[in-house]
Amino acid sequence: MPEKATERRAKAALRNGKKPTTAAGEFVREEIEHVRRGKHGARSTKQAIAIGLSKARRAGIPLKPPKQGQASRRTRRSAEAAYEVGQRKRKPRAPSRRRSAASERALKREGKAAASRRALSSQARRAAARRRSRR
C-alpha cells in the first residue's frame, strides 16, 4: 500500500497540470526510500522503479501501459491490469496471502544496492542514452 502522503502529492501534481509520469515519480521515490530504509530490497534499480510505477497505476494515476514491443508481454499485461484497476475498469482482486508472503520474503532477501545514488545515476544515464538513440 502506498503511503497517503505519496498519493496526496501525486494527485496534487496532476491537479497542477503535471504529466502522469511526473505524478508517478512520487511512487517511485517512495519505493526507492523503502529499499534504502530496509523495508525490503530490490534485485535492480529497474525492479524498484517498476514496483513504484505499478503502485502508481493501481492508485489511479493515468499512466498508460507500455506499447507493444516496448516491454515484454508479461510486463505489458501486468501494467494493463494495474492501469485498469486504477481507472476502475476492473475490480481489484483480493491478493493471495500465500503469493503476497512469498513475494515479500523474496524482496526481503534482496540487497539495498539497487537504491544507491550510483545505481540510480547509472540507470538514469542508460535510460537517457536509450532515449537519445531512438530519435
UniProtKB/TrEMBL annotation:
Residue ranges, annotated region (Disordered): 1-135
Compositionally biased region (Low complexity): 113-126
Biased composition (Basic and acidic residues): 1-10, 101-112
Basic residues bias locations: 88-100
Superkingdom assignment: Bacteria
Name assigned to this protein: Transcription elongation factor
Source species of the chain: Anaeromyxobacter dehalogenans (strain ATCC BAA-258 / DSM 21875 / 2CP-1)
